[in-house]
Amino acid sequence: MGAYVGGAYACGASLDDLAQEWCSTSFLRTVRTLLPTFPWSGWTSGGEVVRTLRRTFGEKTFRDLERPFAALATDLESGAPYAITDGSLVDAVRASLSVPGLFTPVWLNDHLLIDGGVSDPLPIDVVRAMGADVVIAVDVLVDPGEVHMSGLPYLGTKDRRLNIAKTTRPDEASVRKYHPSVFAVLFQMSTVFQRRLCDVVLASSPPDVRLRPDFTPDPPTYSHLGCGIDAGVAAAERALPAIRRAIAAAS
Length: 251
Fold this sequence. Notes:
The chain is an alpha+beta fold. The chain has helices at 2-10, 15-23, 27-33, 47-57, 89-96, 124-129, 182-204, 228-250; strands at 71-75, 81-84, 106-108, 111-115, 136-138, 152-153, 160-161, 164-165, 178-179, 209-211.
């Protein structure tokens, strides 16, 4: 999403149109976007996503941009961050949003690329290398403790024989335990990894201003934007004094 919004802003696309595009997302549209594909290197080929990107970017390339921009991906073979700064915007953003397991990786410039957040969830170093005087970082990663984990009731080992429960009533010691799904485990694993990696980045190369939108009242999902836009606006408004101070100090 960072590459999508950043690319749209850099090429002068209407942010109101961008918001309308994503606010119109529905469950059925999400299902069409995530239709399974073959080969099995990702759940979906991302074809529907590419069509959405073409509506925003058309045939624009990095040479057409009004502002400097880089789409960050991860080289799957080396594990290193890979900043895309030339070629088609659609191809660059598609590579950057290739969430492992969900979208198939993309071959671009002889690199096999996946989501940039895998290797650098807050690429402060990339924009500094591009010459930025002031870095305003938007940290949208959630803390693992904020994720609501749930699953099938845990019945305890005493009441289980060959994975068949003798009773459907959990004992008192197991009342808070549950069996999470494999998807819940993988999602939480990614949340833990990215949050810890992001904290290392912040400690070693802090931005001038850091925005952290509060999504807890209504977390955004693929099929429901939730409070995402409003949370971002509120976070930016809270940070305005710090942003103005940072710009004044760099002037």
